[in-house]
Amino acid sequence: MSRNIMRHVYGWLLLTPAAILLIAFTHYPTIATVFDSLFSKGTAIRPSRFVGLANYEMLIDDPIFWKVLTNNAWFAMGTIPTSIILAIAMALLVNRAIPGRSLVRMAYFTPTILPMIAVANIWLFFYTPDIGLIDQATSWFGIGGHNWLGNPATVLPAIIVMTIWKEAGFFMIFYLAALQNIPPELEEAARLEGSTRWYYFRRILFPLLMPTTLFVMINAVLNSFKLVDHLFVLTKGGPDNASNLLLYYIFESAFSYFDTNYAATLTVILLGLLAVMALMQFYVLDKRVHYR
Protein backbone atom coordinates (compact mmCIF):
# COMPACT_ATOMS: atom_id res chain seq x y z
CA MET A 1 0.00 0.00 0.00
CA SER A 2 2.78 2.44 0.95
CA ARG A 3 4.60 1.66 -2.32
CA ASN A 4 1.44 2.39 -4.31
CA ILE A 5 0.98 5.70 -2.44
CA MET A 6 4.59 6.66 -3.13
CA ARG A 7 4.08 6.01 -6.84
CA HIS A 8 1.06 8.35 -6.85
CA VAL A 9 2.96 11.01 -4.89
CA TYR A 10 5.92 10.70 -7.27
CA GLY A 11 3.63 11.05 -10.29
CA TRP A 12 1.91 14.14 -8.91
CA LEU A 13 5.28 15.70 -8.05
CA LEU A 14 6.31 15.26 -11.68
CA LEU A 15 3.07 16.85 -12.90
CA THR A 16 3.04 19.74 -10.41
CA PRO A 17 5.43 22.17 -12.23
CA ALA A 18 3.57 21.80 -15.53
CA ALA A 19 0.19 22.01 -13.76
CA ILE A 20 1.20 25.23 -11.97
CA LEU A 21 2.28 26.85 -15.24
CA LEU A 22 -0.87 25.66 -17.03
CA ILE A 23 -3.15 27.02 -14.30
CA ALA A 24 -1.24 30.30 -13.92
CA PHE A 25 -0.91 31.15 -17.61
CA THR A 26 -3.90 29.41 -19.23
CA HIS A 27 -6.78 28.48 -16.93
CA TYR A 28 -6.67 31.45 -14.55
CA PRO A 29 -6.37 34.10 -17.34
CA THR A 30 -9.26 32.46 -19.19
CA ILE A 31 -11.53 32.51 -16.14
CA ALA A 32 -10.45 36.07 -15.28
CA THR A 33 -11.19 37.21 -18.84
CA VAL A 34 -14.70 35.74 -18.75
CA PHE A 35 -15.24 37.40 -15.36
CA ASP A 36 -14.00 40.81 -16.59
CA SER A 37 -16.28 40.65 -19.63
CA LEU A 38 -19.27 40.87 -17.28
CA PHE A 39 -18.26 44.28 -15.92
CA SER A 40 -18.46 47.80 -17.39
CA LYS A 41 -15.53 50.05 -18.20
CA GLY A 42 -14.16 51.64 -15.07
CA THR A 43 -12.85 55.21 -14.76
CA ALA A 44 -11.36 57.30 -11.97
CA ILE A 45 -14.79 58.87 -11.39
CA ARG A 46 -17.07 55.92 -12.08
CA PRO A 47 -15.76 52.51 -10.96
CA SER A 48 -16.47 49.36 -12.90
CA ARG A 49 -19.73 47.62 -12.05
CA PHE A 50 -21.40 44.32 -12.89
CA VAL A 51 -23.46 44.60 -16.08
CA GLY A 52 -23.98 40.94 -16.95
CA LEU A 53 -24.20 40.36 -20.70
CA ALA A 54 -24.42 44.06 -21.61
CA ASN A 55 -20.94 44.00 -23.16
CA TYR A 56 -21.99 41.12 -25.41
CA GLU A 57 -25.13 43.01 -26.46
CA MET A 58 -22.96 46.04 -27.28
CA LEU A 59 -20.64 43.77 -29.27
CA ILE A 60 -23.53 42.51 -31.39
CA ASP A 61 -24.43 46.12 -32.25
CA ASP A 62 -20.79 47.06 -32.94
CA PRO A 63 -20.28 47.44 -36.74
CA ILE A 64 -16.48 47.47 -36.33
CA PHE A 65 -16.62 44.04 -34.68
CA TRP A 66 -18.49 42.54 -37.64
CA LYS A 67 -16.12 44.26 -40.06
CA VAL A 68 -13.12 42.88 -38.19
CA LEU A 69 -14.65 39.41 -38.00
CA THR A 70 -15.30 39.42 -41.77
CA ASN A 71 -11.73 40.56 -42.40
CA ASN A 72 -10.42 37.74 -40.24
CA ALA A 73 -12.52 35.18 -42.10
CA TRP A 74 -11.14 36.35 -45.46
CA PHE A 75 -7.64 36.47 -44.00
CA ALA A 76 -7.94 32.88 -42.74
CA MET A 77 -9.35 31.62 -46.06
CA GLY A 78 -6.54 33.36 -47.92
CA THR A 79 -3.62 32.24 -45.76
CA ILE A 80 -4.44 28.74 -44.49
CA PRO A 81 -5.00 26.69 -47.69
CA THR A 82 -2.37 28.61 -49.68
CA SER A 83 0.28 28.21 -46.99
CA ILE A 84 -0.41 24.49 -46.69
CA ILE A 85 -0.35 23.89 -50.47
CA LEU A 86 2.92 25.83 -50.83
CA ALA A 87 4.42 24.02 -47.85
CA ILE A 88 3.64 20.61 -49.37
CA ALA A 89 5.00 21.69 -52.77
CA MET A 90 8.22 23.02 -51.24
CA ALA A 91 8.66 19.91 -49.09
CA LEU A 92 8.22 17.64 -52.10
CA LEU A 93 10.81 19.66 -54.01
CA VAL A 94 13.52 19.76 -51.34
CA ASN A 95 12.93 16.12 -50.42
CA ARG A 96 14.31 15.11 -53.82
CA ALA A 97 17.95 14.98 -54.84
CA ILE A 98 18.29 18.40 -56.48
CA PRO A 99 21.44 20.55 -56.82
CA GLY A 100 21.92 22.86 -53.84
CA ARG A 101 19.18 21.18 -51.86
CA SER A 102 20.50 22.46 -48.50
CA LEU A 103 20.60 26.04 -49.78
CA VAL A 104 17.06 25.75 -51.12
CA ARG A 105 15.83 24.41 -47.77
CA MET A 106 17.56 27.27 -45.97
CA ALA A 107 16.07 29.82 -48.39
CA TYR A 108 12.55 28.46 -47.82
CA PHE A 109 12.96 28.43 -44.03
CA THR A 110 14.71 31.81 -43.62
CA PRO A 111 11.51 33.96 -43.51
CA THR A 112 10.31 31.87 -40.57
CA ILE A 113 13.19 32.84 -38.28
CA LEU A 114 12.95 36.56 -39.02
CA PRO A 115 11.29 38.68 -36.29
CA MET A 116 7.77 39.81 -37.14
CA ILE A 117 8.73 43.49 -36.95
CA ALA A 118 11.61 42.88 -39.37
CA VAL A 119 9.28 41.08 -41.79
CA ALA A 120 6.81 43.97 -41.66
CA ASN A 121 9.54 46.49 -42.42
CA ILE A 122 10.87 44.37 -45.30
CA TRP A 123 7.43 44.23 -46.89
CA LEU A 124 6.91 47.92 -46.20
CA PHE A 125 9.82 48.44 -48.61
CA PHE A 126 7.92 46.33 -51.17
CA TYR A 127 4.59 48.11 -50.74
CA THR A 128 5.70 51.77 -50.44
CA PRO A 129 3.98 53.77 -53.23
CA ASP A 130 6.17 54.80 -56.19
CA ILE A 131 9.52 54.00 -54.55
CA GLY A 132 8.66 50.47 -53.35
CA LEU A 133 10.07 47.42 -55.12
CA ILE A 134 6.68 46.36 -56.56
CA ASP A 135 5.95 49.79 -58.05
CA GLN A 136 9.52 50.04 -59.35
CA ALA A 137 9.07 46.71 -61.14
CA THR A 138 5.64 47.56 -62.57
CA SER A 139 6.91 50.93 -63.81
CA TRP A 140 9.06 49.06 -66.36
CA PHE A 141 5.79 48.02 -68.03
CA GLY A 142 4.33 51.52 -67.93
CA ILE A 143 2.07 50.82 -64.93
CA GLY A 144 1.74 53.69 -62.48
CA GLY A 145 2.35 53.50 -58.76
CA HIS A 146 -0.27 52.11 -56.41
CA ASN A 147 -0.82 52.65 -52.70
CA TRP A 148 -1.08 48.97 -51.76
CA LEU A 149 -1.52 49.56 -48.03
CA GLY A 150 -3.65 52.69 -48.38
CA ASN A 151 -6.31 51.23 -50.66
CA PRO A 152 -9.12 49.29 -48.91
CA ALA A 153 -9.34 46.93 -51.90
CA THR A 154 -5.68 45.84 -51.79
CA VAL A 155 -4.55 46.22 -48.19
CA LEU A 156 -5.89 42.88 -46.92
CA PRO A 157 -4.56 40.86 -49.91
CA ALA A 158 -1.19 42.57 -49.34
CA ILE A 159 -1.17 41.42 -45.71
CA ILE A 160 -2.21 37.91 -46.80
CA VAL A 161 0.71 37.65 -49.26
CA MET A 162 3.17 38.73 -46.58
CA THR A 163 1.80 36.21 -44.08
CA ILE A 164 1.98 33.34 -46.59
CA TRP A 165 5.60 34.26 -47.35
CA LYS A 166 6.48 33.99 -43.66
CA GLU A 167 4.46 30.89 -42.71
CA ALA A 168 4.86 28.52 -45.67
CA GLY A 169 8.51 27.75 -44.87
CA PHE A 170 7.63 26.95 -41.27
CA PHE A 171 4.97 24.45 -42.29
CA MET A 172 7.35 23.00 -44.90
CA ILE A 173 9.65 21.73 -42.13
CA PHE A 174 6.90 19.53 -40.70
CA TYR A 175 5.96 18.12 -44.10
CA LEU A 176 9.62 17.49 -44.91
CA ALA A 177 10.05 15.55 -41.67
CA ALA A 178 6.91 13.53 -42.46
CA LEU A 179 8.07 12.77 -46.02
CA GLN A 180 11.40 11.47 -44.76
CA ASN A 181 9.58 8.98 -42.54
CA ILE A 182 7.63 7.49 -45.45
CA PRO A 183 9.36 4.37 -46.86
CA PRO A 184 10.66 4.98 -50.42
CA GLU A 185 9.58 1.44 -51.30
CA LEU A 186 6.00 2.69 -51.52
CA GLU A 187 6.85 4.99 -54.44
CA GLU A 188 8.88 2.27 -56.13
CA ALA A 189 5.99 -0.17 -55.83
CA ALA A 190 3.57 2.43 -57.21
CA ARG A 191 5.82 3.03 -60.21
CA LEU A 192 6.05 -0.70 -60.90
CA GLU A 193 2.26 -0.80 -60.90
CA GLY A 194 2.22 1.99 -63.50
CA SER A 195 0.86 4.74 -61.24
CA THR A 196 1.45 8.34 -62.21
CA ARG A 197 3.03 10.80 -59.78
CA TRP A 198 -0.28 12.56 -59.26
CA TYR A 199 -2.08 9.27 -58.55
CA TYR A 200 0.68 8.25 -56.09
CA PHE A 201 0.46 11.60 -54.32
CA ARG A 202 -3.36 11.62 -54.17
CA ARG A 203 -3.95 8.00 -53.18
CA ILE A 204 -0.86 7.12 -51.13
CA LEU A 205 1.34 10.05 -50.12
CA PHE A 206 -1.22 12.65 -49.09
CA PRO A 207 -3.26 10.23 -46.92
CA LEU A 208 -0.04 9.34 -45.11
CA LEU A 209 0.59 13.05 -44.54
CA MET A 210 -2.81 13.65 -42.94
CA PRO A 211 -1.52 13.58 -39.31
CA THR A 212 0.92 16.33 -40.26
CA THR A 213 -1.80 18.19 -42.15
CA LEU A 214 -4.05 18.12 -39.08
CA PHE A 215 -1.24 19.50 -36.91
CA VAL A 216 -0.30 22.16 -39.48
CA MET A 217 -3.91 23.21 -40.03
CA ILE A 218 -4.51 23.75 -36.31
CA ASN A 219 -1.38 25.91 -36.12
CA ALA A 220 -2.40 27.79 -39.27
CA VAL A 221 -5.84 28.57 -37.82
CA LEU A 222 -4.25 29.84 -34.60
CA ASN A 223 -1.78 31.97 -36.56
CA SER A 224 -4.55 33.50 -38.66
CA PHE A 225 -6.15 34.89 -35.50
CA LYS A 226 -3.07 36.20 -33.72
CA LEU A 227 -1.64 38.75 -36.15
CA VAL A 228 -0.79 42.00 -34.35
CA ASP A 229 2.84 43.00 -34.98
CA HIS A 230 2.56 43.31 -38.75
CA LEU A 231 -0.58 45.42 -38.56
CA PHE A 232 0.96 47.68 -35.93
CA VAL A 233 3.88 48.48 -38.26
CA LEU A 234 2.11 48.50 -41.64
CA THR A 235 -1.45 49.75 -41.38
CA LYS A 236 -2.67 50.22 -37.78
CA GLY A 237 -5.77 48.36 -38.99
CA GLY A 238 -6.58 50.95 -41.66
CA PRO A 239 -7.65 52.35 -43.93
CA ASP A 240 -11.16 52.50 -42.45
CA ASN A 241 -10.60 49.15 -40.65
CA ALA A 242 -10.07 47.41 -44.00
CA SER A 243 -7.08 45.48 -42.58
CA ASN A 244 -8.17 45.34 -38.95
CA LEU A 245 -8.25 41.82 -37.51
CA LEU A 246 -9.83 40.50 -34.34
CA LEU A 247 -6.73 40.31 -32.15
CA TYR A 248 -5.59 43.77 -33.24
CA TYR A 249 -9.04 45.12 -32.41
CA ILE A 250 -8.66 43.58 -28.95
CA PHE A 251 -5.27 45.29 -28.66
CA GLU A 252 -6.78 48.62 -29.71
CA SER A 253 -9.69 48.34 -27.27
CA ALA A 254 -7.40 47.50 -24.35
CA PHE A 255 -4.38 49.76 -24.95
CA SER A 256 -5.66 52.59 -27.16
CA TYR A 257 -9.19 53.06 -25.80
CA PHE A 258 -8.38 51.62 -22.33
CA ASP A 259 -11.62 49.63 -22.38
CA THR A 260 -10.23 46.40 -20.93
CA ASN A 261 -13.67 45.00 -20.16
CA TYR A 262 -14.81 45.26 -23.78
CA ALA A 263 -11.43 43.80 -24.83
CA ALA A 264 -12.14 40.90 -22.46
CA THR A 265 -15.52 40.40 -24.17
CA LEU A 266 -13.82 40.29 -27.57
CA THR A 267 -11.25 37.85 -26.19
CA VAL A 268 -13.98 35.50 -24.98
CA ILE A 269 -15.48 35.52 -28.48
CA LEU A 270 -12.03 34.83 -29.96
CA LEU A 271 -11.44 31.91 -27.59
CA GLY A 272 -14.87 30.53 -28.40
CA LEU A 273 -14.23 30.74 -32.16
CA LEU A 274 -10.86 29.01 -31.83
CA ALA A 275 -12.34 26.25 -29.65
CA VAL A 276 -15.17 25.60 -32.14
CA MET A 277 -12.80 25.52 -35.11
CA ALA A 278 -10.37 23.20 -33.30
CA LEU A 279 -13.18 20.78 -32.44
CA MET A 280 -14.45 20.88 -36.03
CA GLN A 281 -10.99 20.10 -37.35
CA PHE A 282 -10.57 17.18 -34.99
CA TYR A 283 -14.00 15.71 -35.74
CA VAL A 284 -13.81 16.26 -39.51
CA LEU A 285 -10.15 15.63 -40.28
CA ASP A 286 -9.45 13.00 -37.64
CA LYS A 287 -11.65 10.55 -39.59
CA ARG A 288 -9.26 10.93 -42.53
CA VAL A 289 -6.07 10.63 -40.49
CA HIS A 290 -4.07 7.43 -40.76
CA TYR A 291 -1.64 7.18 -37.87
CA ARG A 292 -0.11 3.87 -38.91
Outline:
By secondary structure, the protein is mostly helical.
Task: Describe the structure in your own words.
The chain has 292 residues and is an all-alpha fold. It has one domain: MetI-like (MetI-like fold). 72% of the residues lie in helices and 0% in strands. The longest helix is centred in the N-terminal third of the chain and has 35 residues, at 2-36. The chain is flat, with a radius of gyration of 24 Å.
Q: Indicate the CATH topology.
A: MetI-like fold
Low-confidence stretches: none
Task: Tell me the structural class.
Answer: mainly alpha
In total, how many domains does the architecture comprise?
1
Shape summary: flat
Order of helices and strands: HHHHHHHHHHHHH
Tell me the helix content. Answer: over 70%
Task: Work out the number of β strands.
Answer: 0
What attributes characterize this protein structure?
292 residues; mainly alpha; MetI-like fold; 13 helices; 0% strand
Which helices and strands occur, and which strands form pairs?
Blueprint: H1 2-36, H2 54-60, H3 63-94, H4 101-113, H5 116-127, H6 133-139, H7 155-180, H8 185-192, H9 197-208, H10 210-224, H11 229-234, H12 246-255, H13 260-285
Helix pairs in contact: 1-13, 3-7, 3-10, 4-7, 7-10, 10-13, 12-13
